[in-house]
Design a protein that fits this description.
The complex is a heterodimer. Chain A is mainly alpha-helical. Chain A has a single domain, classed as Fumarate reductase/succinate dehydrogenase, transmembrane subunit (3 helical TM bundles of succinate and fumarate reductases, Up-down Bundle). Chain B has 2 domains: 101 residues, Beta-grasp domain (Ubiquitin-like (UB roll), Roll); 132 residues, Alpha-helical ferredoxin (Fumarate Reductase Iron-sulfur Protein, Chain B, domain 2, Orthogonal Bundle). Helices cover 32% and strands 15% of the residues of chain B. Chain B has 11 helices and 9 strands. In chain B, helix 3 packs parallel to helix 8 and helix 8 packs across helix 11. The termini of chain B are far apart. Classes of the chains: A mainly alpha, B alpha+beta. The interface between A and B is large, with 45 and 57 residues. The structure holds protoporphyrin IX containing FE and FE2/S2 (inorganic) cluster (FES). FE2/S2 (inorganic) cluster (FES) binds next to loops of chain B.
Amino acid sequence: MNDIKQQGNRLGIIGWLTGGRWGFERYMYSLHRITGLGILSYFLLHIFVTSSRLFGARTWELVMGAVANPVFKLGEFAVFAAFAFHMLNGLRLILIEFGFAVGKAEEPVYPYRSSVNTQRPLSVIVIILAAVIVCVGGYRFFFMH
Amino acid sequence: MTEKATQIRFHIRRFNPETDTAPSWQEYQLDVDPGMTVLDGLHQLKHTQDMTLVWRYSCRMGVCGSCGMLINGRPGLACNTQILHVTRTALTLAPLPNFPIIRDLVPDLTEQFLKHRELKPYMIRPDTSEMQHPTGEYYQTPDDLLDYLQFTYCIKCGCCMAACPTLATDPEYAGPQPLAQAYRYSRDSRDMGYADRKPSLTADHGIFSCHYGSECSSVCPKGVDPARAIQLMKRQLVLDYFKLLRKKPPCKTLGPNEHAERKANIPAAPPYTV
Ligand code: HEM
Ligand code: FES
């Protein structure tokens, strides 16, 4: 076997989003990771920005002026939306990964129902709640200030 | 009444390790009858159009696990997928992703088998003499059986491994097939090997690298539901970590029925050969 040249076919990072026709929850997996990393990078930036106060009032004013840019306002909203999804989906994952929402083993009878169906109501609730929070938050964010 | 055949365009991923540097797509046209499986279609193509087409199959009835491939973007068995159930126009066939390609539609599943072995997918008990020369049966209730029966239907086709987003980026991750089998055995009331499997389960790239992408369970052609087995296994490990795990009572051995009388005309069992 070893003398046969093999062709790698691992999907790689691109496989978090494509590489096949996947179900809904697999995209939630990717979104959870992306939002988690997004919040983390916001958090780092946030510390960096607020720590500029250490260098005196002038630096602080300068930095605050820079982040007053509308791009940052939009970014802040993205972080808010990402956090809404990440938090709700995180609760769903905690329930699932502690084995609470995947049901008991059952005899597979065609057409198969799996744990994906068992936990589906949670996914729907997460999406609806996240959408509501993002819409209400968006309204307050952009129109009330 | 005979139904008319449907013209289907096949897009097949080709790769010949002796001549090609990268896989490429090739197109075929085929008249497809109702009831024809993807495997039938491939045979037709090989017989009538291109004898160099390569894929792997054996049982052609969904039990050997040889013919897993990416069918219109979803991992499945070529032999139990009817072409007209998935398309009326075009059919895309590619080798299962996340495995190296040996040739055309043939993935190399060696990696999966090695990880499977690492998790000790067999009955582990201290009473080896009873296992080898049984004096009775290990007692198991129908409820005990149902706790793991679903996970015994695994045919190791690799469809779940191809669908897993964690395996897409972490080659060392054990993956849904081996992990589900670790639960299948650990959950079996006759097995006592949980402690032996625990180090591999909890190692880096072990079971806690599963973040519930859940696609393994959606694509499984046998209804095995690896994602369920994995979450239930995690639950057991977490309970164990917090010392909340109820000890599994050792299963009883049922000896021969003392009240039964052997009929005179039944000969004695032959001696053991192993
Ligand atoms: C109430 C708030 C939060 C909840 C309930 C939550 C929940 C979770 C859970 C359960 C996971 C593990 C997912 C899995 O293993 O499948 C996770 C992953 C993660 N979280 Fe959070 N989280 C929260 C807030 C945050 C914050 C504030 C940050 C950033 C500073 C963050 C960054 C991440 C990252 C980077 C991951 C790893 C993603 C991955 O490996 O896919 N999370 N979160
Ligand atoms: S040929 Fe055996 S599973 Fe398809």
